[in-house]
């Protein structure tokens, strides 16, 4: 058992340190610079950011991109984005640059800016949808005109030390790398043009870097046992315990209570788990060839509307999903041979907004699964998910020995533990291999 725990610990450590997500092994955010023209003292580039993560979006208030210039470059102008600070441009006379900082910080513009300040795929307040959810909205772009820079592909120096906040911490960016030049189609689609030079930067996410505690927890119930297995106590850390609001508090009628804070600080409903989000998995019905699960997501944060929310579940029977009611569903197949993971997300204009805490702060769905005769069982907690992610962050599950058990199934605790052990070993194998 000790060996098992240390193996599991090492596995967790490695997967965090390498920013590796076993359910989305190829997920990343790629930032591409295409130089489209040389100027007398530098170049004009189109910078495109693609969110290639299957189920992790960059939510409001949006991305912040930073880098360090290699030489004394300045930004003459930008279209479709802006730097947060101009910096010291005192040595310029007449034409003043947009930004003279050695380490500029760039943010997207808000929707609705005048037409002449817009650029294709800009001005979404920095929100990037997840790739698996809406690939067309998973891209953001702006144009930048750089001065005091190299003026040919031999003399230009790549910016260094890229940083991405999305909107909080969690992303780590690699170095810029020159890649084959991007080709573009002209608007009439009859001619191809080519960037004069292209470089890419790849950024990956690690929940370990993003937050100390989970951001969500999971609770269980079933038709075959009246026990409701709650979220673990203090699943998300209890540091907000002293400023939480009871659900019957008079304070809730105060005007402005729901106004989000600049730093996104939550205002949580008091619960024993102190999580902003809870996912509940209820094993609802048993048919001859099918079984049915009800999934609900509850928001406990009075200061947050979750737009474009996503839920990822890993369960061995997800290879036989027959119908999903009132959520969109997409199987994720992170490894060719394993089809046990899927993502749920809201239907556009129907329930893609998970409202702030309160009577409207929940969304729910039912899932119909076809029993696979070789593996299906209600015993040993098999009917409950192995992993759950909300908005790309892993949620805390209850301890296995508290799952609602099928009455009269002997040795259930012991065999559940060995099941977890086998599952963990299997994952370890897949990860290292
Ligand atoms: C980034 O993600 C894309 C899409 O999944 C993938 O093709 C590419 O190889 C990834 N890049 C890196 C450096 O992992
Ligand atoms: C560079 O990034 C773009 C997306 O912005 C991607 O399509 C392309 O494959 C990347 N190139 C390399 C060599 O990684
Ligand atoms: C630089 O440009 C020249 C022609 O203008 C081209 O032959 C060469 O491949 C380019 N080098 C790089 C690294 O893009
Ligand atoms: C890279 O950026 C980070 C944050 O902006 C900064 O702390 C660090 O010193 C920078 N490193 C270099 C080599 O510029
Ligand atoms: C959430 O959205 C509703 C309706 O659009 C709005 O009235 C409310 O103020 C929003 N709450 C937060 C916390 O942004
Ligand atoms: C994975 O399972 C889904 C059902 O959830 C099915 O539609 C899909 O075809 C399966 N994909 C593979 C590659 O087995
Ligand atoms: C369940 O899914 C697997 C893999 O997609 C398939 O081989 C099997 O026939 C399915 N079982 C049922 C009962 O549909
Ligand atoms: C229901 O599940 C709980 C929690 O695992 C267990 O303690 C209890 O014995 C089960 N009830 C029955 C009737 O088996």
Automatic annotation (TrEMBL):
<dbReference type="GO" id="GO:0098552">
    <property type="term" value="C:side of membrane"/>
</dbReference>
<feature type="transmembrane region" description="Helical">
    <location>
        <begin position="414"/>
        <end position="432"/>
    </location>
</feature>
<dbReference type="Pfam" id="PF04833">
    <property type="entry name" value="COBRA"/>
</dbReference>
<dbReference type="Pfam" id="PF25079">
    <property type="entry name" value="COB_C"/>
</dbReference>
<keyword id="KW-0336">GPI-anchor</keyword>
<keyword id="KW-0472">Membrane</keyword>
<dbReference type="GO" id="GO:0005886">
    <property type="term" value="C:plasma membrane"/>
</dbReference>
<dbReference type="InterPro" id="IPR006918">
    <property type="entry name" value="COBRA_pln"/>
</dbReference>
<protein>
    <recommendedName>
        <fullName>COBRA-like protein</fullName>
    </recommendedName>
</protein>
<comment type="similarity">
    <text>Belongs to the COBRA family.</text>
</comment>
<dbReference type="GO" id="GO:0052324">
    <property type="term" value="P:plant-type cell wall cellulose biosynthetic process"/>
</dbReference>
<feature type="signal peptide">
    <location>
        <begin position="1"/>
        <end position="19"/>
    </location>
</feature>
<keyword id="KW-0449">Lipoprotein</keyword>
<dbReference type="InterPro" id="IPR056900">
    <property type="entry name" value="COB_C"/>
</dbReference>
<feature type="domain" description="COBRA C-terminal">
    <location>
        <begin position="215"/>
        <end position="404"/>
    </location>
</feature>
<keyword id="KW-1133">Transmembrane helix</keyword>
<keyword id="KW-0325">Glycoprotein</keyword>
<keyword id="KW-0812">Transmembrane</keyword>
<dbReference type="GO" id="GO:0010215">
    <property type="term" value="P:cellulose microfibril organization"/>
</dbReference>
<keyword id="KW-0732">Signal</keyword>
């Amino acid at each position: 058992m000790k060996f098992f725990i240390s193996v599991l610990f090492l596995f967790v450590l490695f997967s965090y340190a390498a920013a590796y997500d076993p359910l989305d092994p190829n997920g990343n955010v790629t930032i591409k610079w295409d130089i489209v023209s040389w100027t007398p003292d530098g170049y004009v580039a189109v910078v495109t950011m693609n969110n290639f993560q299957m189920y992790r979006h960059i939510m409001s208030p949006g991305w912040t991109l930073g880098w360090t210039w290699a030489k004394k470059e300045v930004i003459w102008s930008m279209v479709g984005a802006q730097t947060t600070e101009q910096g010291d441009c005192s040595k310029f006379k007449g034409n003043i640059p947009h930004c003279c900082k050695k380490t500029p910080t760039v943010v997207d513009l808000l929707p609705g800016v005048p037409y002449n300040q817009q650029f294709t795929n800009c001005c979404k307040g920095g929100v990037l949808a997840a790739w698996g959810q809406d690939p067309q909205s998973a891209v953001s772009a702006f144009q930048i005109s750089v001065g005091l820079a190299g003026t040919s592909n031999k003399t230009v120096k790549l910016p260094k030390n890229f940083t991405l906040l999305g909107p909080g911490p969690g992303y780590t960016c690699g170095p810029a790398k020159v890649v084959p030049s991007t080709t573009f189609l002209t608007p009439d689609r009859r001619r191809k043009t080519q960037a004069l030079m292209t470089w890419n930067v790849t950024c990956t996410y690690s929940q370990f870097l993003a937050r100390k505690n989970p951001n969500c927890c999971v609770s269980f119930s079933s038709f075959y046992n009246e026990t409701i297995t709650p979220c673990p106590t203090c699943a998300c850390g209890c540091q907000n315990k002293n400023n939480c609001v009871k659900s019957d508090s008079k304070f809730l009628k105060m005007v402005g209570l729901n106004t989000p804070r600049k730093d996104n600080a939550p205002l949580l409903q008091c619960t024993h788990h102190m999580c902003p989000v809870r996912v509940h998995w209820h094993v609802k019905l048993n048919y001859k060839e099918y079984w049915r699960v009800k999934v609900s997501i509850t928001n406990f944060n009075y200061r947050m509307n979750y737009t474009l929310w996503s839920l990822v579940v890993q369960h061995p029977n997800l290879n036989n999903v027959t119908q999903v009611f009132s959520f969109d569903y997409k199987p994720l197949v992170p490894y060719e041979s394993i089809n046990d993971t899927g993502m749920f997300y809201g239907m556009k204009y129907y329930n893609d907004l998970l409202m702030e805490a309160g009577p409207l702060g929940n969304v729910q769905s039912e899932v119909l699964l076809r029993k696979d005769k070789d593996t299906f069982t209600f015993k040993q907690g098999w009917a409950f998910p192995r992993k759950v992610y909300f908005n790309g962050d892993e949620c805390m599950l209850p301890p296995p020995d508290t799952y609602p058990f099928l009455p009269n199934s002997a040795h259930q605790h012991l065999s559940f533990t060995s099941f977890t052990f086998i599952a963990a070993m299997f994952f370890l194998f897949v990860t290292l291999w």
